[in-house]
Write the structure tokens for this entry.
Amino acid sequence: MTVAPQAATLPQAGRLRSTVDFYLTTMRLAVQEQLQYRTANYFYMFGMVAEPVIYLVVWTTIADQQGGSVQGFTAGYFAAYYIVWTLVRNMNIVFGAPYWEQRIREGDLAGALVRPLHPLHFDIAYFAGWKVVVIALWIPLAIGLSLVFDPVLDPRPLEITVFAVAIWGAYLLRTMFQSTLGMLCFWTTRGAAIFDLWMTLELLLSGRLVPLPLMPDWVQTISWFLPFQWAFYFPIESLVGDLSDAELARGLAVQLLWILIGLGLFKIAWRSAIRRFSAVGG
Amino acid sequence: MNALRLSWLYLRVGVMNELQYRANFVVQIFQSAITLLVGLAVLSLVYSHTSELNGWTQPELLCVLGIQILMGGVIRTYIQPNMTRVMEEVRQGTLDYALTKPEDAQLLASVREVRIWQVVDVISGAVVLGFGLSRIATGLGAVDAAAFAIALLFGAVMIYCFWLVIATGAFWVVNMWTAAELFDGVFQTGRWPVGIYPGWLRVSVTFLVPIAFAVTVPAEAVTSRLDWETLLFTAVFAVFLFASTRRFWHFGLRNYTGASA
């Protein structure tokens, strides 16, 4: 059976109110659901913490060997960078591209398509609700890491505000690109290789591995023109670094630009992907 | 002798099973290549900012990287698949089929699975190790090579023990998957010599999760850092760990009532 691409339409009058209502309800649902899995959420976070702790230890060792700093970055800076990293990394977890395969294979998509709202709305709303739980659970973890590693963190109020916005910008940005990439699952069941390649580029070009100024110049130039660093390095740096007001504003603007580009790409990909879709159960 | 024959038999059947899925080989090569390239990129990045890390030069850390990839390959080829199968079978109740066989249960539980394509990582790790060694001026002496082989073997045994403890835990706690995921994260600490970590972490990745024994100690052997006392201690600790793990497994079995298959 081939499902028609257009689903039932909402009455135009109450459209905005219904959408807002849908978002709030889905977010509330996600909060209640995820609060039940506190232990699982924590285990997941602990597993994730190994990665930044390793980077932190390596760069702190180098800084100490060279009289306290690498290219002007002190051990205290690295500690702050990688502790804030853990929150940004958590915000970067979205409905990932590989899960589109599951969604298609198990027939969930067929059910989602007959709803009057695009499935992307559900993904954004549900994971946004989950993030509220994640942020709450992250705070004790951050306190623990701060006690062990002595971060130097002295943000201005404006920087804190920009950071609070930028982590949500990062969340939306990555949602758009992962969803677009997920459209590949409509064509192949071996998307894993491409997703791996994407993740690797992201690791190297986003600031996840090291603060970007430590990368060779040409890598920094490339990453300037790609979306990755605006979902990772920029949010971290807005809080930890010493960006000027203009740089903070520009960062948010570039984030917005990439979110819109990602949304545009997703719409194009979705349109041709959904034509190929034939339902499986659901 | 019977144990060896049995393991060999399972290995052959497992390999034949896996060889049917050739496409997985290509995917595995691709993934191993990515892992390797990222590892090399990180090393060259680190050494563009320093000439040595805690006394380890770049070729020496290449050896560490090679051994970590190699050991990771061994774990994913043979150790992890068997142990996750035990955990899964406890949940489903099918472990009873293995327990009722007239062979040692621990042996059976440990040799039934093999993911032969993961051997790609063993090979790529060995190549990196060889390359690192070729760039160390002093070369590799026969004594060091022998110490390396012994240390690697004991290291693998200790990782196996760690996994068996986790798998045995499934007799009490059904959801041990998260522990398995934790291991993957923590195993990445093996990329770097254990000496760079702060005390609490060093103790954890040495005695709690024996990654230091599995990667750093063999790496110390090939870079002529290993003294006899450490190797002896490694051997004693491996034997101790194996014996106590076996006791723990039996203790778990006695408490296990079966989930009825």
Notes: The two ends of chain B are 31 Å apart (CA to CA). Chain B has one domain: 2-255. Chain B touches chain A through 32 residues (CB under 8 Å). The CA atoms of residues 176 and 182 of chain B lie 10 Å apart.
